[in-house]
Amino acid sequence: MRSQKLILLCFTVAAISLSCNRKKSDNSSQTPDIQVAEAVTDSLTLYKTYPGIISANSTVNVVGRVNGTVLTSNFSGGDLVQKGQVLFTIESRIYRDALQQAQAQLATARSTNEYATKQYAAMKKALESDAVSQMEVAQAKNSMESSLAAIKTAEAAVRTASTNLSYCTVTAPITGHISSRNVDPGAYIGGEGAPVNLATIYADKDVHATFYIEDDSFMRMHSSKADREGIDYSAIPLIFSEELPHSYTADLNYLAPDINSSTGTIEVKANIDNPYNELKAGMYVSVKLPWKTDPKAVLVKDASLSTDQLGKYLYTVNDSNKIVYTPVKVGDLYQDTLRIITEGIQPGTKYVTKAMLKVRPGMTVNPVLTR
After folding, report:
1. What is the band of 292 on the pLDDT scale with cuts at 50, 70, 90?
2. Among 204, 215, 239, 240, which residue's beta carbon has the most beta carbons within 10 A?
3. For 109-153, what is each residue's pLDDT tens digit?
4. Which distant-in-sequence residues (6+ apart) come within 8 Å of 269 by Cβ?
5. Which residues contact 264 (CB under 8 A, 6 or more apart)?
6. Helices within the chain (DSSP H only)
7. In what order do the strands lie in the sheet with 67-73?
């Protein structure tokens, strides 16, 4: 009886051991689950990003053109000033006196002309009765003509004096935001010798971004009308180093007629509406210039791409669920996470998205499709 129990125990142990070995063998041959995605196709616009700088569409210096003491300054730096608004006043006494003197000289010239004209008329009449000589008539005519010239000279002097007096009141030549003043009230300026810069006005209701593109990029942009179809150059996306409260686009409105031979680039300008006055002259901006459309672009997740000595590649999964090493050629990044594939795979191709280090070419896997 004891012998039978011992034999039965041995058979039980053997059975358990056989079962464990079978399970271990089954686990070792189990096909691993690998996450994959399918290459998708989409119609998209391709962009190239260029660094640019913001400038006001018009920048004008407010200058003092006369000599004198600055009496008042009627604005604060950063104000929006209107065209014709008084900004500075400058001591005007010597210019008022000069105007009055010029006006007096004009009055004298007109009076002299009036007398000379009457004198000439009388001389001509007297000549008819031989009361005066031809020489006297000629002299009277000369005096009249000289008085006319004196009037013109006096009138010019009045205009100059009036203009100089007007310079004593400095107004805004354009509408825009003004800088802080360069000269404070009480300071003396000598603007007659050379105009003195008092402040600067920026016409920044709308501004423009200036950037430069390579000549070969320009040729690609204009090589195929089909590639440019659907591109909107009136709403070019802009990116700023710090996010602004509002988003902005630019309208391409200037392309230089020549190529800079030293840099091989073309100057480009794009106009930007600035209704909130958030864009300032001198700001840096990244301009996303559209240059091509692709109605059937093939896209994969950029993180799924690997690199070796031959370039970029993907691990794809064929119809037999085997891993295939697939070299690809890539294009631009799209929406920060997707990469355009220009050669190597077709839409719908399954590719490995995770655990790339755990797979190898020829390995059989159980593909788990993810988005």
Report:
1. confident
2. 204
3. 999 999 999 998 998 888 888 887 889 888 989 999 999 999 999
4. 208, 209, 210, 252, 253, 254
5. 214, 215
6. 2-28, 93-128, 134-166, 215-221, 225-228
7. 169-171, 86-90, 67-73, 188-190
